[in-house]
Each structure stands twice: as C-alpha cells, then as structure tokens.
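Give me the fold.
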Amino acid sequence: MIEMFTKGMARNMYYGGGVFFFLLLVGLTLDTLRELPQRDHRENITESVARGKTLWEENNCIGCHSLMGEGAYFAPELANVFDRYGQGNEQTFAAFMQSWMAMQPLAIEGRRKMPQFNLSTAQVDDLSAFLIWTSRINDNDWPPNKEG
C-alpha cells in the first residue's frame, strides 16, 4: 500500500530539521569560540603595526591589493609578502620594502603600475611591520598560490 505524506509527517520533518540545524549552529559557534583564542595574537600589535594599518587604510592599498583574500585583485595578495620576500628575516623584508616603494612606479611595458606614495622611511617601516604582523595570522594557508 502506498503511504501518504501527511501534515503530521511534514510538521515532524520541519521541527526535526529546525532542531537539527539549530544544534549544528550552536556546535559550530562553540567550536569557533574555542578556536579563536588560539589564533589571536593581539598582544603582538605594536605602535608601528597600528601606524602601518593606518597607512594601509589611508592610502587605500586594499583598492588594488588583497589581504587574506579581502580586497581587490588588481595587484598581488599581500598576506604572504613577508614570507615571499623576507625569508623570515624582518630586516631583510624592511630593506626590500624600502627599495620597492622607492622605485615605484616601475617603467615596465605592459605591467600594472603602482603609484608613488612618497612615504617616508619611517612610514615604510610601519607598513612593513603591519605586513609582517598580518603574515603571522593563521589564515589556513591562504593564498593557495605562493606568489599571491
């Protein structure tokens, strides 16, 4: 005999599904709350990092670059720029950033041009500190492409 789908069955599925997905939401929320303190590294925010973030925002760097996947994709991802060009050495990266920012825009035909922001040495050091700080965030191996 063919069983009919009744209102009672539909109601039970509706409430059962609602309870199931509510419990799933609670479980995922609790897991996130348990994981976040392990990823938090706010204690490493220095004045230099804060000034670098301010420079990042004031010069609208995110208008061209992305940082941990957020922003524009016109220019390279910068979440791993310290890993790419600093090789784990903060002084090497700071020197790289000083020279890189000084020689912009590059006169290479067909290449996207980064504007010259005329930042001081201290400002570039602050921006470097911010990018080093962001590279140490656990971003689940983002970006997947090492070159950004």
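The mean pLDDT is 90.
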